## 1
Amino acid sequence: MKDRILRIMEHEGISPSKFAEEIGIQRSAMSHIISGRNNPSLDVLTKIMQRFTYVDTDWLLFGKGSMVKNGITKIEEPNLFRENEINPPIVQVEPEYRKHTELSKPEITTKNTGIEQIKYEERSSKNVSKIMIFYSDNTFETFTPEKNKKE
């Protein structure tokens, strides 16, 4: 049966993943059928018969007869992009006139920008006069910078 399903795919010119999408099953299920791991379920066979109506049921199930029912060739489904009596081309009889409004140029206004002056105030410098280090044993040390010692 897997060979007959492969033959339908060949006849349609589609890949196994596209075939699975067409009949509405998961790609993994289709892969298991093609590899021979699983046989197709009744649900899968029913979906094949519903989607590909030209396939003869006896041929699909038992391998008897020909693939195509009563000499029917592949039935083409309506194509969105094909123009035929189902989808006639839309012809516009009158040209469409649209009202156009011209864009006006925006007015450019300039602002008088004043010059801002930034004043930098110097702060009095601070000098380190003493550093004290306290230890966990309740002792401490005092350090005095060299330049402060001279003063």
## 2
Amino acid sequence: MLVVLAGFGLTARAERADRQAPLAFTADTARVDDQKAVHTLSGNVEITKGSIVIKAAQVEVRQGKDGHQIAVATGGAKRATFRQKREGLEEFIEGEAERLEYDSRADAVKLVGQAVMRRLRGSTVADEVNGSVITYDNTSEVFQVQGGATAGGGTGRVRGVLTPRETPAAGAGR
């Protein structure tokens, strides 16, 4: 089953500055292969790129000749996590999965394996979707949620809760 949600009904985008921000990291160990432009980070990895924060047990970052970056994060004992601030709002998009794939050129994140994505208003969860694979295209503000076979005999269907957007009170401004 596939469900497509147009940005949970959002009209604001992620922080524009994130695209041009440098990628900074902390980890227990790092292996840098300049020839192949691959950085392998292991142990309590935390990556930041503007308002984007990725946490995982291991992350492999590849950098293209044009400077774009692709990061593949795996969670290990804990799942990999992703968080990004919304432009001009006190809202965040956050997700977690067994594997996370971030592509700076496409401005997209893919969550694979027991994937969950949430929209938070401040610290309150406003919307949440669950599935086997969730792809979020920040440029078009579209989420795609796929179900799939699950361990333990689950149905593999996608699930979600969408909170109505706040609208001005009826008759306000008249």
## 3
Amino acid sequence: MTTPFGAPRPGASPLKLEFPQSLAVYDDYAAAQRTVDYLSDNEFPVENCMIVGTDLKRVERITGRLTTGRVALGGLLTGLWLGLLIGVLFTLFTTGNALGQIVSTMLFGAVFGLIWALVGYAATRGQRDFSSVTQVVATKYEVLVEHKVAARARELLAGLPGALPNPFA
């Protein structure tokens, strides 16, 4: 899968093992990482390992309530920043009153951002009156190793307290 210097062979994906076998399954990433680190400390060829997050969940954390005022303020500020960026770019390529160009593009951007945000908010018709952040997280982490080194990995891992391999977990 790799050249003698550790580079991936042409056409080989760095996120794949040829014939992976499960070494252990953990409830958190830190335990899986600790296992690979332990193998590395014992001079195991860790380029034959992979940590795979499984049992994925989508978690959405609600960060606040949306009101017309909050939406308007957010649109206004976003428009100001966009106007500032465009104004600075304009001043790089034109001659004339640079401050006037920047201020006018900022004002135009603020008005545009305000209208765009309010129209978008009105289009939802109250279907989503909150802000949130979303993340996909794994609930299990499986350490996989190439079949040709799996036996050696299991031998080494038997010496790590609390990390006995359980490929059937």
## 4
Amino acid sequence: MPLSLLQQVPYFAPEDIAALEMLWQKRVHLRRHDFLTRQGQVEQNLYFVASGALRIYYPLPDEEICVGFAYPNTLVVSFPSFVAGKPSDYYIQALRKSELLGISKNDFMQLMEERPHIRRFWYEQLEKALVGKIEREVDLLLPEPAQRLQRVMQRSPHLFQHIPKKYIASYLRMSPETLSRLK
């Protein structure tokens, strides 16, 4: 993870930052449409997006349902697989050329055991992710596409800077034409 971002975490000691920097060393370069994770693969790493954009999607026979995105300065992982050590139900695919930094699950778990501030940071990230997932669940329950779009635009306006509209439409469970009409 970049030093500038780590230094923004007020409770990180210099030793915490040094420990994180030392272990976030696995560099991954993806071209557009390359996969970071495929369905059936067991997720062994947590990734930080340095550049680019990715989508997390669930495949169905006749469509792909976007369930999330990653863009610069965010973490990305097939979370159920990462936590449970079971094959992923999801694909994570680059939407454009992307560079990521990774840390192995074992190294990350050991770091959290050794460093309470890093454990605190991870729990804060999990809390933010859970709140985001609850908000998304509410979005999907709204019957009107315009309401879903409005909520996402208020919560995540940056999405439209990083992610192609056809994937945002899938995320909002509407057609690209409906999204264009509403936008």
